[in-house]
Amino acid sequence: MLSVIIPTDGVERSAVATLAALVPGAAAGLVREVLLVDRTGTDVIERVADVAGCHFLRFEGTRAAALAAGAKKARSPWLMFLHPGAVLDHGWIEETTQFIQGVAASGKDRAGIFRYARSPYADPTFRDGLRLVARMMTGPSVEQGLLIGRDHYERLGGYRPDARRSEARLLRQLGRSSRTMLRSRIMVA
After folding, report:
1. Which terminus of the chain faces fewer neighbouring Cβ atoms within 10 Å, N or C?
2. How many structural domains does the chain have?
3. How far apart are CA 150 and CA 48, in angstroms?
4. Which residues pair with 112 in a beta bridge?
5. Cβ–Cβ under 8 Å, residues 143 and 116
């Protein structure tokens, strides 16, 4: 039902944190596959993928190109893009299932964005305040993850490897009318 694409940068700890939050979704049958797309030359993420039962794709290029490559290899009709270190709230499975069913029933193209939540263990910084203001003015950030149907993703042109700020461009293309802010939170490390 759902393929999760995570572009890693060779950092094991953040990839493992995100994968741990996805385990209940795999057990519930929602997550069909997880693709770890690594842009470094190390074998760290390849070992993590092997242990976790994920697909591994080594890729050289920009983050947007890595995301596009992961989406191309994914087999499910729904795609979820997460940054490494992003941890989904416990209620994400039920809400994601309801969202997918609702979009299928309505026949309208919609994408879901998870609600941002700062890690409760992180000390607030001035930068966090600036990010909050930016989210209020411009909309969600790329760190909040993206849940989108493959057909919708392809009609929008997906992540363009050659475009600057391709992730933000795709969010802007979705616009307010075709994206839904989900109730489930995503904690970003």
Report:
1. N
2. 1
3. 26
4. 147, 180
5. yes
| pTM score of the predicted model | 0.88
Domain that holds residue 70: 2-188
Tokens of 148: 């989108």
Query: What pLDDT does residue 143 have?
Result: 82
* Per-residue pLDDT tens over the stretch 109-144: 999 999 887 666 666 676 766 665 665 555 566 788
Q: SS3 letters for the chain?
A: CEEEEEEECCCHHHHHHHHHHHHHHHHCCCEEEEEEEECCCCCHHHHHHHHHCCEEEECCCCHHHHHHHHHHHCCCCEEEECCCCEEECCCHHHHHHHHHHHHHHHCCCCEEEEEEEECCCCCCCHHHHHHHHHHHHHCCCHHHCEEEEHHHHHHCCCCCCCCCCHHHHHHHHHCHHHEEEEEEEEEEC
